[in-house]
Specification:
Rossmann fold, eight-stranded mixed beta sheet, five-stranded mixed beta sheet, 8 helices, binds S-adenosylmethionine, S-adenosyl-L-methionine, transferase, methyltransferase activity, methyltransferase
Length: 391
């Protein structure tokens, strides 16, 4: 698939470094890059960071006052919840560990960076949580194929520097899914490997239900959390605001040989989509939400985790079918706590049986004792006897 590297001036995010560069290939060219709005967010389809305007002294301000920004108040129904929730049963804190797999390993971490292997490439990326010292000798770090340099802030802007020739696109596998990796702006390569622990959990829920489930995957990105349930017989609806991310996910579907599986690919604002589904009376047996901290819908609709998640969960609750099997929400908004996410989810699921677990999702270091916290989660699963009630 790959061609020899092109010589010439470096370009864009795949610019060649002095020592190495990106090998272009004839594969699909995509420019999907999470857009940025200036706030930190994990792949929340961010616009390019706005150029900071210098603070002009008052006297220099134009005479015509700028149009005031009208902030619509968020009106929430004041409905006191019962002091004690009836159900589901709470289990917390839960530490979910992802140990890595053939195409992913957390090799080392320390001094604000992590050394990871994604398929055939070893990468160094900034990692605010890696506060200790690296375990491996420096020579191991020097062998890395690419280093993301730049803003140390989570999701901050920066660029990839290549120490060797690398392909622009390379393939990796997880179970029945084959997917493309690509060096993206904002340090991503098209997969959040820690999510593998959740993909497995969703798989267990699907197997436990022992029937064909209707699954909704919101903020679905490059589609792994859609492809893996589809491979297990689920009918999946995948929603993402980015056309390019959906294109990438569809390529992953073809690469995986899952082209015949029933997946509806929908480019929409997740909030608008769920509100519309509620009005239509649609239901789903399993719902996955992996929202960014901040993102935008295709028409500029704003997703802000802290502002939007209560209404999102209220709608999601209405979309759960009477014999729903699971609901899973990740949160990379670390300013939240898993307890906050747990209590919100518990409030929304009041009246349901089953179990609600919340905690942190962490990656276990390869051949090492340490774990790296990546995100928070809350996940609800129906009681085992739900299977009997299935269609
Ligand atoms: C963090 S990624 C999801 C990661 C993915 N679930 C996985 O584990 O591989 C966030 C995704 O949310 C999408 N997004 C951001 N704002 C959105 C919105 N308002 N509606 C729908 N999708 C949105 C982005 O395009 C991006 O693909």
């Amino acid at each position: 698939m790959s061609k020899s590297p092109k010589s010439g001036a470096p370009r864009g995010r795949n610019a060649q470094s002095k020592k190495g560069g990106v090998r272009k290939d004839n594969g699909p060219k995509r420019s999907f890059a999470p857009k940025r709005d200036g706030r930190d967010s994990r792949s929340g389809n961010k616009e390019a960071a706005p150029v900071a305007r210098s603070q002009s002294p008052r006297r220099e301000q134009p005479r015509t006052a700028p149009t005031p920004i009208v902030v619509e108040p968020i009106v929430r129904e004041h409905k006191p919840t019962s002091a004690r929730f009836k159900t589901p049963a709470s289990v917390l804190p839960v530490m979910v560990e992802m140990d890595g797999w053939d195409d992913y390993a957390l090799l080392d971490m320390g001094h604000g960076q992590k050394l990871e292997r994604y398929g055939r490439y070893t990468l160094i990326r900034p990692e605010a949580q890696a506060m200790g010292a690296p375990r491996l000798p420096e020579i191991e770090w020097k062998r890395a194929d690419a280093i993301f340099t730049g803003d140390m802030e989570e999701e901050g802007p920066g660029r990839w520097k290549f120490t060797k020739q690398v392909d622009e696109i390379w393939q990796m596998k997880y179970g029945p899914a084959t997917f493309n990796g690509q060096f993206m702006s904002f340090r991503h390569v098209g997969v959040f490997p820690e999510q593998a622990a959740h993909w497995d959990w969703v798989g267990e829920q699907i197997k436990k239900a022992d029937r064909s489930l209707k699954v909704l995957n919101l903020f679905g990105y490059t589609g792994l959390a859609s492809l893996l349930p589809a491979a297990l017989g689920a009918q999946v609806t995948h929603v993402d605001a980015s056309k390019k991310a959906i294109g990438w996910a569809r390529e992953n579907q073809e690469l995986s040989g899952l082209g015949d599986k029933p997946i509806r690919w929908i480019c929409d604002d997740a909030m608008k989509f769920v509100e519309r589904e509620v009005r239509r009376g649609s239901t789903y047996d399993g719902i996955i939400l992996d929202p960014p901290k901040f993102g935008r819908g295709p028409n500029g609709e704003v997703w802000d985790f802290f502002e939007s998640v209560p209404n999102m969960l209220a709608c999601v609750r209405k979309l759960l079918s009477p014999n729903a099997q699971f609901l899973l929400m990740s949160s990379y908004a670390i300013r939240a706590s898993f307890l906050a996410s747990h209590e919100l989810m518990r409030e929304c699921l009041d009246g349901l049986p089953g179990t609600l677990e919340s905690g942190e999702l962490a990656i276990r270091e390869h051949n090492g004792p340490r774990m790296l916290s990546t995100s928070l989660f809350s996940r609800w699963s129906a009681p085992d006897n739900n299977k009997a009630k299935g269609a």
